[in-house]
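Figure 2 data, in text form.
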Amino acid sequence: MKKLLSTLAIGLLAILPGAVMAAEEVADKADNAFMMICTALVLFMSIPGIALFYGGLLRSKNVLSLMTQVITTFSLVCVLWVIYGYTLAFGEGNAFFGSFDGLMLKNIQLTDVTGTFYKLIHVVFQASFACITVGLIVGGFAERARFSAVILFIVIWFTFAYLPMAHMVWGGGYLFTLGAIDFAGGTVVHINAAVAALVGAYMVGKRSGFGREAFKPHNLPMVFIGTAILYIGWFGFNAGSASSANEIAALAFVNTVVATAGAVLSWVFAEWMVRGKPSLLGACSGCIAGLVAITPAAGSVGIGGALILGLVAGIAGLWGVVVLKSWLKVDDTCDVFGVHGVCGIVGCLGTGILTSAALGGTGYAEGITMLKQVGIQAASIGVCILWSGIVAYVAFKIADVCVGLRVSEEVEREGLDVNSHGERAYNQ
């Protein structure tokens, strides 16, 4: 009898609107754990991953300056995100910005949820995306930028470029309503950062001796370790963007493996054919290229589509760092635009094609054709390039006027480690 009454009570509660609402607001412990793990993985990418990958690509006299920029900008963005970043990106506002209603996260209670996990976890998960984005930028103008200029630039660019892009794509803004598909940050993170890095590389200028001296990576094992950390962390980046330990997270997880493997192979074999030897640097670069390309597509393309995307990304990335870089006549130190910009564009456009159910994807929204989706994807890329480029230009100009963008030639020749930070990476 008790069991029957209990069953009837549960059934009655299930049909009551208030009970349904309450059920929807209960956080799922498994999803909470999943999202915390994914967040930690993205944070792991942001500091040791980027710092080691970029640091190994530089000359030994500048490796600590890059690492200092990475960890300092990471911390700066964390603070700004809590003060006003989260509310401007995810608060209810207009087509381009959220609102100031949630300054210092004042309206978020401990029990508030986003989907099936606590909202505070969502705050940190999205903060990790913002942090890694600004970390990517500093590789474009490494080895000659003034530390104070980097800090000032990041404050301005984060506020007026990253936050509106995040709101437009993920916070219910303009590109979201347009129907753009960006599962984990093809525009918001990669193209956004790549354009800012490219503008910075032009405005800071080429390194002394660029084109006359050989600027070789000082520590390829360090690059490999950084790549491995980024690869592992990227599963948090992509799978975590499903916001739940569900079938889409599983799809994103598998797609990340497959696309990356394809890109490594296509880059290595293309390099082998063109240059006569396959290199570790090429394999590492191909790994990042595949990860970048699959980022916007991870939750909507099929596994075969992910492999195609990866294979194309490896070739496109190699073209970006060899041919396009030469055409642009730019000193993009760590090839931020060549890899993140080019492969981000490939990934965003490829998402528009390979999301098609006929090609194994999850399918388009009702009334959307492949051609229309590709057009929407192209529009989102254009908005991102234009917005980020203009803000970056203005931010660099302000930094130049206020503190100066570049160190002196004498300081650059001796190295930023000892001159800007009073340290040496290798004391012999």
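Caption note: Residues 370-402 form the longest helix (33 residues).
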